[in-house]
């Protein structure tokens, strides 16, 4: 393997990033070379020769991406109906920077991994990733790539995927109704921080209440299903996951009487006898506003002094949480995510984390070794629900709107897809899966459709005169309409050919 | 509590049940569980109970036929074939396209088709869905048979997503009639891929019972008769033919069956073929009965039918029939007396409760006869 300039995994990574470069072009090359560089840096041998190879391979990978970006910037951009590329992005300097960045990142990552000091090996990469994560939004803002929303949503889903990873990846319980906890978190935020029922608490308080509410429901729903076998547990959780949105959808006209007095009043024909408990006014109580959903939901509050401080030089940054002002949202979810990753990775190493994996591998043996099955499984369920609750609460505040349609079964499957694609039981894998799926879902399919539509217009459609035939093919070949198919294919193919995921979990699984 | 006498325990138990009923009546009110309202409804129109019975039986007939596919597949390879509901959805689609070939426009502008077209349409729908289901097994499940159960289940979820998407994009065929008059009949699909599609009117909506206050339509009779015929034929096939015997043997013990010279792969393919064909038949029945289809219908129909299969005892054909009828009745009565918007929640609640309290269902017994 050492003789090869690029190994198979690296070629695959470059090809995938190259495809993104081909359909997006412009400034995206800077981000893509960093990703490819990091990948090469991770995949080489952790020794001095590896650092050298990382330099050469990184340069080669960056060169390929630059060439592909050139193809986009010069050829694809001329297709009809393409998004324009900023002039600054087509500067020769950008390409040179991209080359240097790709090479540099690859070498730096390889260097950190090959470092003699264990602490550098351990924390160097994390620090590097944090630096990249902090720099990203500023670069994104300047570049006009419009990737911030996608990245924020990807981080919200990462939080969910990390939670599901505890339940499904560590403890081995397939939860198909995971969206229920996302919904509970979201609706808790919606009800306690909006004009809907006239309760407007602080975001910073409600997000904890929401997580706690989700965790409590995790306990309530988790307790009865624990004795069930794998597929029965999956179906029961699916049932719960379906019931929760139906409940939110239909709690728009609630009026509850005390049952005994109500029945008595009906028998004695004395309407006044019925004791009304909830929604007794002229109109019944409207808790969730039905299918129309709840809005507007309050956003995180920032002290005015802090906003004023950051508004002035040298920061010149608006920290107010507003739609379209992505910076504060980005950093808030980043902090949430980083803290969660830290928490979960420590948890995985702890006694309870090892107990989860023991249960997944062999429940009977784990029990015989003195692991309390009920307690261990319930903790997994509760923690998984809690992270989903956090994600739901943040999501509700971020989009300032929740409705039952946002919590369909497909969300559960998409989160499952992230865990499966990335690697069940592996934190890195799950994060990777979440970012890939959400990037495809919100960004790449749309970009691909723009390029595909342009290509069709200059090739096939030029030969087709009839407007009707064009309409038919446009409808049939609309890439954005094939999301479900794509996620379904990912599930089927991963199960067939790589059930351990793209980044398998490190702990050896014994047969 | 360990020292309490049997009487005390009995009293406590009764108290617990009373408490559960009281709480259910209290928090069930928004979901339509309101005894006074239900009592009023029944008192005002006692005949509607019989009416709901008919509707429930007809709905249950369709649920039963779909549930057969779940129960047979689960009986033989212990897989919840999540894609089964979507196979049913595509069966409805095929039925719709086939019936549309013979449809004519009425004086009022609606579409109508003769009954023989619908009856003939059972053949392509069953053939298509049978082959599709067998193909799915070959492509997505066979390699995973030795893996843990959840692996195949996840693969099945993937297949169900793929088929839902196919169902959505098949709607694009509705744009073909604008291109050439050959495709004229496809205009029934409309121009919006995702929109629900209406079937041509095939059966008259008139009451078979004449002036009797309770309605029994031709569609009611037809779906019940077809369902009865299919269940009878299937039971006969499984009980009395050599292949049926091989299926039962494979369900009971795959390895032993293989040692007795049964081609297990072939039997499993056959099971999927029959299950799929039944889903196709249910597709045509649903088209005739409900008169419309939409690409998302597979999920709910699939879950309802799966609930029926579990309720009756999964792996048991008679159980699936019983469960189907019960779920059909539950849905009809919930639509009428509780609240139509909560019907799915009630069905899912039944699913959850059955799996929690009696996972073997009504007729199932551990280690008993399967398939």
Describe this structure in words.
The complex is a heterodimer of chains A (511) and B (371). Chain A starts with 7 loop residues before the first helix and ends in a 14-residue tail after the last helix. In chain A, a hairpin with a 4-residue loop joins strand 1 and strand 2 (199-200). Chain A has helices at 8-24, 28-43, 48-74, 92-114, 118-143, 148-170, 179-192, 203-225, 230-250, 259-268, 304-311, 326-349, 351-361, 363-368, 373-399, 409-422, 427-458, 460-463, 467-476, 483-497; strands at residues 193-194, 199-200, 256-257, 276-278. By secondary structure, chain A is mostly helical. The radius of gyration of chain B is 23 Å and the shape is globular. In chain B, strand 1 (104-105) and strand 2 (111-112) form a beta hairpin. Chain B has one domain (49-206, 217-357): ABC transporter involved in vitamin B12 uptake, BtuC (Orthogonal Bundle), CATH 1.10.3470. Helices cover 68% and strands 2% of the residues of chain B. The chains are: A mainly alpha (511), B mainly alpha (371). Chains A and B meet through helix 9, strand 3, helix 10, helix 16 and helix 19 of A and helix 1, helix 2, helix 6, helix 11 and helix 13 of B.
């Amino acid at each position: 393997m050492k003789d090869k300039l690029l190994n198979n995994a690296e070629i695959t990574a470059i090809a995938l990033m190259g495809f993104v470069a081909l359909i997006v072009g412009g400034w995206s090359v800077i981000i893509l070379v960093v990703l490819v560089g990091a990948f090469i840096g991770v995949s080489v041998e952790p020794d001095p020769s590896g650092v050298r190879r990382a330099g050469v391979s990184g340069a080669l990978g960056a060169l390929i991406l630059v060439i592909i970006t050139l193809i986009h910037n010069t050829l694809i951009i001329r297709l009809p109906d393409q998004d324009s590329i900023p002039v600054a992005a087509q500067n020769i300097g950008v390409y040179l920077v991209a080359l240097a960045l790709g090479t540099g990142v690859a070498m730096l990552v390889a260097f950190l991994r090959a470092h003699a000091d264990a602490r550098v090996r351990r924390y160097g990469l994390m620090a590097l990733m944090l630096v990249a994560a902090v720099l990203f939004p500023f670069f994104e803002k300047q570049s006009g790539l419009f990737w911030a929303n996608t990245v924020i949503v990807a981080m919200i889903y990462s939080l969910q995927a990390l939670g599901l990873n505890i339940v499904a990846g560590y403890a081995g319980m397939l939860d198909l109704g995971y969206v229920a906890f996302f919904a509970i978190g979201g609706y808790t935020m919606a009800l306690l921080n909006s004009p809907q029922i006239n309760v407007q608490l602080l975001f910073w308080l409600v997000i904890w209440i929401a997580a706690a509410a989700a965790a409590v429901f995790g306990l309530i729903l988790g307790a009865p299903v624990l004795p069930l076998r794998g597929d029965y547990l999956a179906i029961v959780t699916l049932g719960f996951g379906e019931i929760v949105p139906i409940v939110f959808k239909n709690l728009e006209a609630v009026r509850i009487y005390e049952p005994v007095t109500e029945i008595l009043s009906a028998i004695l024909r004395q309407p006044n006898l019925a004791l009304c408990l909830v929604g007794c006014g002229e109109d019944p109580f409207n808790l969730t506003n039905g299918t129309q959903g709840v809005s507007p939901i309050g956003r995180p509050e920032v002290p005015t002094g802090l906003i004023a401080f950051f508004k002035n030089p040298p920061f010149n940054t608006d920290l107010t949480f507003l739609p379209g002002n992505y910076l504060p949202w980005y950093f808030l979810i980043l902090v949430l995510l980083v803290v969660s990753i830290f928490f979960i990775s420590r948890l995985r190493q702890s006694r309870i984390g090892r107990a989860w994996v023991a249960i997944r591998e062999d429940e009977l043996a784990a029990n015989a070794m003195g692991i309390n099955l009920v307690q261990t499984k319930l903790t997994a369920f509760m923690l998984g629900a809690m992270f989903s609750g956090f994600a739901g609460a943040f999501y509700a505040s971020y989009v300032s709107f929740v409705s039952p349609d946002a919590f369909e079964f497909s969300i559960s499957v998409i989160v499952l897809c992230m865990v499966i694609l990335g690697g069940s039981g592996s934190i890195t894998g799950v994060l990777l899966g979440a970012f890939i799926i959400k990037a495809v879902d919100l960004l790449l399919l749309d970009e691909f459709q723009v390029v595909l539509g342009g290509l069709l217009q200059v090739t096939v459609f030029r030969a087709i005169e009839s407007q009707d035939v064009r309409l038919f093919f446009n409808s049939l070949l609309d890439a954005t309409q094939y999301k479900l198919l794509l996620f379904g294919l990912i599930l089927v193919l991963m199960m067939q050919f790589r059930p351990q995921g793209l980044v398998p979990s490190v702990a050896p699984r014994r047969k | 509590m360990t020292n309490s006498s049997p009487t005390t325990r009995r009293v406590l138990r009764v108290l617990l049940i009373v408490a559960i009923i009281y709480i259910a009546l209290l928090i069930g009110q928004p979901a339509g569980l309101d005894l006074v309202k239900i009592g009023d409804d029944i008192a005002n129109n006692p005949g509607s109970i019989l009416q709901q019975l008919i509707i429930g039986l007809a709905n249950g007939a369709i649920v039963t036929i779909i549930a057969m596919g779940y129960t047979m597949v689960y009986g033989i390879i212990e897989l919840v074939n999540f894609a089964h509901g979507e196979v049913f959805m595509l069966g409805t689609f095929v039925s719709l396209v086939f019936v549309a070939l013979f449809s004519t426009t009425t004086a009022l502008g609606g579409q109508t088709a003769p009954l023989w077209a619908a009856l003939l349409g059972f053949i392509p729908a069953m053939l298509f869905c049978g082959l599709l289901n067998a193909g799915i097994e070959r492509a997505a499940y066979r390699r995973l048979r030795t893996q843990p159960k959840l692996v195949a289940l996840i693969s099945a979820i993937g297949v169900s997503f793929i088929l839902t998407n196919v169902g959505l994009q098949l709607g694009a065929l509705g744009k073909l009639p604008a291109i050439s008059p050959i495709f004229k009949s496809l205009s029934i699909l409309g121009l919006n891929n995702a929109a629900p599609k209406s079937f041509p009117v095939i059966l008259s909506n008139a009451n078979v019972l004449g002036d009797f206050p309770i309605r029994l339509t031709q569609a009611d009779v037809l779906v019940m008769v077809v369902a009865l015929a299919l269940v009878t034929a299937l039971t006969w096939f499984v009980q009395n033919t050599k292949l049926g015997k091989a299926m039962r043997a494979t369900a009971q013990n795959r390895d032993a069956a293989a040692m007795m010279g049964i081609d297990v792969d072939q039997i499993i393919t056959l099971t999927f073929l029959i299950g799929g064909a039944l889903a196709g038949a249910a597709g045509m029945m649903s088209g005739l009965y409900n008169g419309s289809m939409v690409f998302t219908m597979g999920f709910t129909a699939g879950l309802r039918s799966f609930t029926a299969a579990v309720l009756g005892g999964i792996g048991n054909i008679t159980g699936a029939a019983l469960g189907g009828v019960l779920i059909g009745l539950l849905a009809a009565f919930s639509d009428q007396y509780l609240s139509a918007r909560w019907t799915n929640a009630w069905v899912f609640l039944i699913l959850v409760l059955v799996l929690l309290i009696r996972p073997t269902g009504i007729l199932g017994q551990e280690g008993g006869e399967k398939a």
